[in-house]
Amino acid sequence: MDYSAALDISSSGKHFDNAKVSIDPEGIKSPAGFIDYADIIRFIANNFRVYIYLQGNTTITVSMLGHSYQGFCEELAKCYNARSLESLFIEEECIMDCAGEFQIPATSVAPAEQGRGRIALYPDSVCIMPESSQAVRIPLCFAANINLDGYILSITMRTGEVYRFGKMGYDTKPFAERCMKCAGDTVKRRKSLISQITVDLPYTMKGLFRTADEEKYWSAAFGKTGCAVELYTGENTATYLYRFSDMQLFCYRLEEAMEAVGSHRELIYIDDEKLRQNPVYRMAVHRSEAVRFLRSCVAGRIIHTESHDEKLSEFLSNN
Questions:
Q1: In this structure, what are the phi and psi dihedrals at residue 21, rounded to the nearest 5 degrees?
Q2: pLDDT, tens digit, for every residue of 11-20?
Q3: What is the pTM assigned to this prediction?
Q4: Which of 28, 150, 228, 232 has its CA 20 to 30 A from that of 100?
């Protein structure tokens, strides 16, 4: 939908009166240029102004919306959240979708955040959707504990992060009960499916991508500080190499990253230039600590040729 508004751009000092502003599924069109949702850090509506904070320390202030102010805010939140969900690669049907309070722990690219937003339960995950770039998909298969205390539900991950959300009115208890059931079902199904996967030495670790996709999986072989990962997806194959300093942390993050990317496995190996050219992938990497961690450990790859096994053995012996 198109809106008439005034725009102020902090980085350039430019001002636009009676500007035509359009909220689209991929971003915002305006006389100041196209604003991709991948570049938005957060937006805040206050006193009939909307402040849009972008990467690079630029703030765009939208004002003079008149009676369209509420509609603009609602449409911006709706489209931004839809794009965030797209970047989290969720394919399952939503079980519950509520408005509530949340607390998200700090990450390597953003401080801790709390506020109100959309909270959605899926068969294998919970998604928290703030009006910022910290939207997160919490994979229930890696939850160490789920606890309801009054009106607040806490999910503690095996790596120690704690996500809290709740105060969803009468939906709080049903949401918590369904969340705990989904977690139990996902863990049980995932364990059963992984136990049926057979891998050969030197591969000693194995896992699924998404729990719902039982036909595609991966395996990993380890040296002292190096790891080789093989993807079994029916596509052209290669062995992806990584280096690490803490094996347990690396193994946790490896599993989490593979689960996070789902069917978009190229996210673990495409270079930064190709990543910059794909807004959804940029959003996906920004929203997953595990994917960023795994990408930071990249040490190359080995194409499947006649010398593959020799190169693999050499890498594992030297790392």
A1: -120, 125
A2: 888 899 989 9
A3: 0.92
A4: 28
